[in-house]
Each structure stands twice: as C-alpha cells, then as structure tokens.
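dumping this here so i dont lose it
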C-alpha cells in the first residue's frame, strides 16, 4: 500500500481563497469576525496501491489538487488519518520549479532542487547532462533562471523531476510546459515511467489522456468522492453529469 487515507477533512477560510481589498482587510483587523469555512475535502477515504495509475477528475474547486497535496504531505488535514509508505521515493510535481532560486543558474538549480529530492551530488553529476538535453536548454543552462521564459523554467523543472525516476509520482496538471512538440515529449516520458512501474496519481482536465493511461479514475465534487473505478465508466458518468449541469 502506498497511500491509505481515512475520513479526511480539509477546510479553508473563504477569505484566503479570494483576493480581498485593502479596505476589507483593514476592517477585519478591528471587527474580529470569523470567516466562513470552505470544505475542500469532506470525509474522503481511499487507498492507492503500488503500481496503480490513478486519475483525479472533477470541476474546478472539486478538491483534486487539495487531495494531491494531502497525499504529498504539503497539507495536513484537520480530521482523519493519512498513511504513506515511507520506504518509497515519492516525487510531487505539484508546481513546476518549486525549490528553484531565481538568482542561480539553471545548472545550479538542478543541483539545489535535486538535493531536495534526496539525490547526491555525484548522482546529479551523472544525470544533469540528460536533464539539460531533454529540456532543450543547452544554450541557456548557465544563465540565471530569473531570465528564463515561463516555458523554459517549466521545461527544466519537468525534466529534472522526471529524470530522477521516482517510485511514486504525484502530478498536478503540468503538461502545458511548452510547445506541442515538447508536450508530446513529456507525455512519452510519463508513459515510459508508468510502464516501468512508477505509481502515478494525476490531476488533469484531459479526460482522454487519463482514460487511456490510468487504470482507475476518481471523480471528486465539492470535496467528496462521487465515483471511483474503471476509467471509461467513470469518465462517461462524469461527462454525462457535466453535460446535464451545463444544459441547466
């Protein structure tokens, strides 16, 4: 078992989910009003086993990214339990470039972020040439990443995170990392990792990709699991419900 979560509940104050005006923020300092809570996850229980490929689907705000962050340990739930296999190398691809320092070069950031992923300097010495080639940044790798375009930044981060061959990969909608050709390269790499046995959990709005690549889909809505099972069946039910909602 990789993940086992039971009766998990995560709630956020609504005022941290929206941008507040300076006037309302100052008013809050003196009124001491309690902000209403938004239930991002509501009594969620599930298990994810070794070598599974799981897709998380649902409309915006359904709780998909929150669930992924609970699995990665970024968010600790207010209620419920989370059990994670500590003997597995888990790499979260939640936000491309997390751990990068803008004043360091691309090469230096590979060493910095790679060390945060648990790799030694000698291991990174061996891997970095292939990371640079995959990211197609040979001409710019020794430039500070603050000078990179958003696409260059994301390509380097994706190349680094997937070159390290994780046993478990948590992916939050990161395929828009460049032009169409590079995106196809990313998908090919993801398929290779999955075929090699990497356990994967995806958040994506690309239903066709998830149905083709995953052996399980979990449909979330308003923080609850609506359906969990065969990808084609769950996707069909989701599309039908989404179509009915849009027609109303």
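and the seq i came up w/
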């Amino acid at each position: 078992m990789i993940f086992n979560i039971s009766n998990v509940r995560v709630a956020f104050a609504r005022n941290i989910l929206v941008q507040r005006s300076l006037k309302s923020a100052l008013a809050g300092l003196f009124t001491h009003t309690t902000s209403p809570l938004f239930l991002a996850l509501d009594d969620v229980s599930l298990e994810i086993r070794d070598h599974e490929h799981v897709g998380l689907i649902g409309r915006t705000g359904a709780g998909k990214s929150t669930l992924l962050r609970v699995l990665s340990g970024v968010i600790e739930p207010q209620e419920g339990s989370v059990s994670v296999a500590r003997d597995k190398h888990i790499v979260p691809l939640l936000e491309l470039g997390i751990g990068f320092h803008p004043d360091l070069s691309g090469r230096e950031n590979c060493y910095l972020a790679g060390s945060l992923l648990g790799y030694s300097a000698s291991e990174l010495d061996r891997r970095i040439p292939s990371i640079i080639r995959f990211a197609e940044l040979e001409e710019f790798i020794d430039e500070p990443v603050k000078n990179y375009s958003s696409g260059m930044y994301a390509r380097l981060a994706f190349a680094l995170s997937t070159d390290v061959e994780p046993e478990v990969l948590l992916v939050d909608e990161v395929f828009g990392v460049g032009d169409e050709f590079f995106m196809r390269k990313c998908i090919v790499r993801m398929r290779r990792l999955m075929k090699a046995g990497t356990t994967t959990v995806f958040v994506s709005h690309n239903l066709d990709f998830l149905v083709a690549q995953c052996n399980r889909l979990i449909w979330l809505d308003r923080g609850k699991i609506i359906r969990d099972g065969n990808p084609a069946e769950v996707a069909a039910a989701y599309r039908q419900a989404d179509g009915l909602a849009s027609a109303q």
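The helical segments are 22-31, 64-72, 106-116, 121-135, 150-163, 180-195, 207-213, 231-247.
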